[in-house]
Amino acid sequence: MTFTDTPHAPQPVAGDRRRWFALAIVMTAAFMDLVDVTIVNIAIPSIQRDEGATFSQIQWITAGYALAFAAGLVTGGRLGDIHGRKRIFLIGIGGFTVASALCGLAVNPEMLVASRILQGAMAALMVPQVLSIVHATFPAHERGKVFGLFGAIVGLGAVSGPLLGALLTEWNLFGLEWRPIFLINLPVGIAGLILGRLFITESRAPRALKLDLVGVALVTLGLLMLLYPLTRGRELGWPLWGYASMAGALLVFGALVAYERVKGARDGSPLIELSLFRVKSFAAGIAVQTVFGIGLGIFFLVWTLYMQVGLGWSVLRAGLTGVPFSVAVSVAAGMSVQLLVPRFGRKVLQAGALVMAAGVLVYLWEAERYGQAITSWQMALPLVVMGAGMGLIVAPLTDAVLSEVPREHAGSASGLINTVQQMGNALGLGLVSVVFFGVIDEGLPPAATGPAFVDGFQHALGWVAAVLGVIFLLMFALPERPAQHVEGAEETPAAVEKEPELVS
After folding, report:
1. Rounded-to-integer distance, Cα 341 and Cα 488, Å
2. Residue 31 has pLDDT above 80, yes or no
């Protein structure tokens, strides 16, 4: 039996207890993806040391995941619309589990990078189905509570990821060093695969858009042409072909725009809905998301290397040092959405950019003043300030960007926001070779490595502060106040723009 979720068709059944099992399964998958992003950062120095990875390889361990995730997000969502969200979710979580095993069993840095790219591609199949399955499984009056729970899961992932990564690496379970940070996904993924088959209800969109594989190929090619020379350029002495590749990336992106215009006119299913960029607040918001992703990509990788290589701290000490930052993000995010944005609107996001920049500048001052003698408690103040600023931005930003987007394009716009944030993150990770490794001499003796990494961290913080200044200015193009939600319209923009068809 099939039925369509329209005003004239039955809605998801509130009395079906299986929906709560389905919710636990998809939330666990979302948590697994969130933790996987943060858990790897804290273990990067251990991976670099144990595997003998080059600086560009450790950048690609993180950037490869972000790039594959970004390139596949929109397509992953559409595959769920066409072939069924449950089916694609199960393929995604199964593939993510296999990729995690390959990461944990990697015999060299090249295998680890390739496995991380596969992991990101599988996450792009899995993650877009989460909110779509919730949207299809729960009746409208229950979705507010469910999406609130989802927000709590996001906050928990941000807090627990670095600490869990630090503990697993520090414990050195069975002599496996850093490998358990990936292998821990195996029992979780297998359980999700088995239980998902039993409890998740299949759903799909009755009027699903077509795939745009050419668009995906052009996006991926353009980003590779930009990122590869950035990450390898320093090691190779900045060859001429690298500059030619980065210039050629602009031509590829131009071809992408032209193709998407034709694709949209031909069948109405482009990868990128270009008409959205006529909405000033959306265009500015996409710029904010991209630049913000760049800043975060730079900071988190450099910060980890600073603490563990520059200061010589253990992975556990580095993980514990980051806890105040994560807690501050979670607390500020909750206050931002519930209390501040309804009253002050856009000013809250701009205040977040300034507060976060202030925290970065205080951190820069402390790093210069104390050098390698800096302590965890001295870092607590700038980290709490930075976390509070980030929390004021991340929670309300999506609503602000989408507030003037036509309802029929809400799903496409939301997918594009997530995509460009991941692309910005990948670009920021690529820029680490310029703003951090670019000021560190090669072949340093061990005694000089720590001070060089401390100096590189200070240089990178200056770039992060500048990025936050750009974000503050871009935010002037956002609406002063997000559009008010219509009573009874609990659908979130992240849900697909088409009503789901439930299949039983």
Report:
1. 20
2. yes
Query: Strands 501-503 and 2-4, how do they pair?
Result: antiparallel
DSSP structural state of residue 13: P
Block residue for tokens 């031509």:
251
- SS3 of 413-471: the string is HHHHHHHHHHHHHHHHHHHHHHHCHHHCCCCCCHHHHHHHHHHHHHHHHHHHHHHHHHH
Residue pLDDT, tens place only, 187-206 = 999 999 999 999 998 888 77
* Structure token pair of residue 419: 């995509």
Distances (CA, A) of 165 to 57, 188, 442: 19, 16, 29
pLDDT > 70: percent of the chain: 90
First to last CA, the chain: 5
Mean pLDDT of 468-479: 94
Strand, coil or helix: 305: helix
Angle, CA 94 vertex, CA 130 and CA 422 arms, to 5°: 50
Displacement of CA 472 from its chain's centroid (Å):
21
Is the distance from CB of 120 to CB of 68 less than 8 angstroms?
Answer: yes
**Rounded to whole angstroms, how far apart are CA atoms 255 and 293?**
24
Count of Cβ atoms closer than 10 Å to residue 448 Cβ = 12
**473 sits in which H/E element:** helix 446-474
Q: What is the pTM of this model?
A: 0.85
Residue 3, pLDDT above cutoff 50: no
The tokens describing 173, both together, are 């379970």
Map 185-248 to HEC letters. HHHHHHHHHHHHHHHCCEEECCCCCCCCHHHHHHHHHHHHHHHHHHHHHHHHCCCHHHHHHHHH
Concatenate the DSSP letters of all residues of 245-256 into one string: HHHHHHHHHHHH
379: its two tokens:
């870092």
DSSP letter at 173 equals: G
Query: Is 396:348 a contact under the CB 8 Å cutoff?
Result: yes
**pLDDT tens digits, 391-444:** 999 878 888 888 888 877 776 787 788 889 889 999 999 999 999 998 888 778
